[in-house]
Amino acid sequence: MATKYEVEPEQHSTNQIKYGALVSYGSIGFNIISGLLYTPWMIGKIGQSDYGLYVLSFSIIAIFAFNLGLEIVVARFLSNYRTSGDRTGEIQFLGIAYKMFFFLTFLLAILLVALYFFLDVLYGNLNPSDMDKLKVMYPIVGFYILITLLAKPIDAVFIVNERFIQLNSLIFLEKILIVSFTIGALLAGYGVYSLVVINASMILLINVFKLLYVWRWTDTKIDFAASGKGMYREIFVFASWQTAVSATQNFLMHIMPTVLVIFASGVAVAIFSIGMVIEGYVLLIATAINSLFLPKVTRLNHSGGVKEVEDLMIRVGRIQLYVIGFITMTFIAMGAEFIHFWVGDDFKESYVVASLLIAMGLITLPQEIANIQLVTTNKVRYRAYGMIISAIIALICSAFLSGPYGASGAALSVMIGYLTGNTLFMNIVYVRVLQINVWRFFKECHLKLAPGLLFILVLGIMMQLIFPASSLLGFVIKAIGLALSYALFTWVFTIDLFEKELLQSILPLKRARKGEAS
Predict the structure, then answer these.
(1) 131 burial via Cβ count (<10 Å: 0-12, 13-18, 19+)
(2) C-beta of residue 292 within 8 angstroms of C-beta of residue 17
(3) pLDDT surpassing 70 at residue 12
(4) Secondary element (H or E) of residue 203
(5) Which of 128, 149, 190, 209 is 20 to 30 Å from 267 by CA-CA measure?
(6) pLDDT tens-digit series, residues 483-516
(7) DSSP assignment of 304-369, as one string?
(8) What is the torsional sign of CA 123, 128, 130, 136?
(9) Average pLDDT, the chain
(10) Burial classification of residue 319, based on how many CB atoms lie within 10 Å of its CB (0-12 exposed, 13-18 middle, 19 or more buried)
(11) pLDDT band at residue 20 using 50, 70 and 90 as cut-offs
(12) How far apart (Å, rounded) are the C-alpha atoms in residues 502 and 510?
C-alpha cells in the first residue's frame, strides 16, 4: 500500500522533525507538570501505603523492561534497507525482527511467571494485606511489560517512515488518557487496582492505534516466513551493543542508591533520589528529538557526506544547547530556592546533587547526532565502551567519596565518570573514528552560545540576591522573567539566520502567510 503523503521527501522530513519535536516537547511538559501537581493529589486519594505498592509494582518495569533501545536497532536496519532501495531486504528483515521480538516476549513472560511465585521471598517485608494487593497488581503490570516490548518494532516503523508527528501525538494522547482516566477513577472511589488497569489498558489501546496506522497509512509489509542465519547474527550483535549502552546507563544511575546505603545512609539515598528526578526530567527533554534524526543521518551516510553530518550535528547541537544550557544555568542560579519550595529544606543538599548531575550534560547531550552516526555506521560498540568506562570510574570514585560527602559525593562520582567516558573518550572516538571536527562543533555551539548562558547565570544569581522569593508564585514570576530575558538576549545577540527562520516557520501567522496552515 502506498504512502498517503504527497510532499517531497526532504520537505516531508523537515516538517515531520520540526513539528514532531514540538509535539514531543508538549508531551514532556504535560508529563512534568502533571507529575508535580497530580502525584500529591493521587497520594492523598489512595494513601501512602497503596501509593508505595503502585510505585513498587511499576519498579518491576524498571528492572525487567527498561529502555534497551531496541526500537533504534530495528529502525537502523530498516533505514539502511530503505535508503539503499532494497525493498525485499526490508520486508524480510521486518519478518525476522518480529519473530525475534516474539521470542524475547515469550522468554520474558516465562521469567515474569516464575518471578510471581517468589514475590513472598523478594518482598517478604510487606504485610499480608499489601502482599495480597501486590499479587493482584503484578499480573496486570506484567501484561503492561509484554505489550510494551511487542510494540518496539511498531515504533521503529514510525521512525523509519518519519511519521514523528503521528507517533509523538499518540504518545501524548496516551499520557493524557492515563491521567484523565486515573483522575476519573479516583474521584469515583476506585482504588489502587484501577491505576494499574488504566495504565495497561491505555498502552494496549494506543498500540492498537499504532498498528492500524502502520497498516493503513504506510507501505509496510512483513514476510514472517523470512529466514537467514546471517541476518539473525547481525541483528543480535548490533542489538547486544545497543543494549549494553542502555543497560550500563540505567545501571549507573540506579546503583548509586545501593552504594549510598553501603557507604553513607538511607537519608543520603532520599537526597540523591530528588536530584535523580530533576536529572531525569532534563534528560527526557534533551533526548526527546534524538530518534527523529536517524533516517536523515542514514541518508547522509549513503550520500557520503561526513561534512553534512557535521553540519547537522552543529545545527541540532545549538538547538539542544539553547534548551539544556538555559535549564542548567537557571537551576544553578535558582535551584536552591526551587528545592526549598518543592520538597523543603530537609532536601537542600539535593540542589548540589541535581546541579552536578545536569551540568555534566552540557557537553554530551548536544552531541547526540554523533551518537546517531555511530548507530547508523554500525560502530555503536564505541558508545558501549564509553559507558562502561564511565560506570567503572564512577563506581570506584563513589566508594571513596560517598562516605565522607554523602549524596553530593555520589553525584560528583557520576559526573567524573561521565566526563571521562562519555566526554573525553567519546570525543576522541568522534575525531578518530567518525572523522568529525569536534573543535569546529565546540566553536559553533558552546563558544558562540557561551555569552547568553553566562548572561542568564549572572542575571539569575543577581535576581536571587536582590529579590528572594517568599512564595512559590514569586519564584515562578522570577523564573518567567529570567526566561524572557534569555529569549531576548538570544534573539538579539546569539541566534543565527537558520534558527530565526526555523522559529518564524513555526509561528502560526507566518505559516498562514505562506499558505502552509490548513
Answers:
(1) middle
(2) yes
(3) no
(4) helix 192-217
(5) 128
(6) 999 999 999 999 888 888 877 776 654 444 444 4
(7) T-HHHHHHHHHHHHHHHHHHHHHHHHHHHHHHHHHHHHHT-GGGTTHHHHHHHHHHTHHHHGGGHH
(8) positive
(9) 83
(10) middle
(11) confident
(12) 11
Distance, in Å, from the CA atom of 318 to the CA atom of 326, rounded to the nearest integer, reads 12
| Nearest CA-CA partner of 332 in 486, 449, 487, 456 | 456
Region of 191 on the Ramachandran plot (φ > 0 left; ψ -120 to 50 alpha; else beta): beta
Q: What is the helix, strand, coil percentage profile of the chain, to 5?
A: 85, 0, 15
The CA dihedral of 72, 162, 434, 85, to the nearest 10 degrees, is 100
Which amino acid belongs to residue 81?
Answer: Y
CB contact at 8 A, 75 and 159: yes
Q: How many CA atoms lie within 13 A of 53 on its CB side?
A: 25
- Residue 333's nearest CA partner among 469, 463, 472 is 463
Q: How far apart are CA 98 and CA 222, in angstroms?
A: 9
Helix (H) or strand (E) holding 43: helix 9-46
Q: Grid coordinates in use for 483?
A: 526566561
Helices of type H across 85-127: 87-116, 119-122
**Nine cell digits for residue 248:** 550500563
Beta carbons within 10 angstroms of residue 263's beta carbon: 19
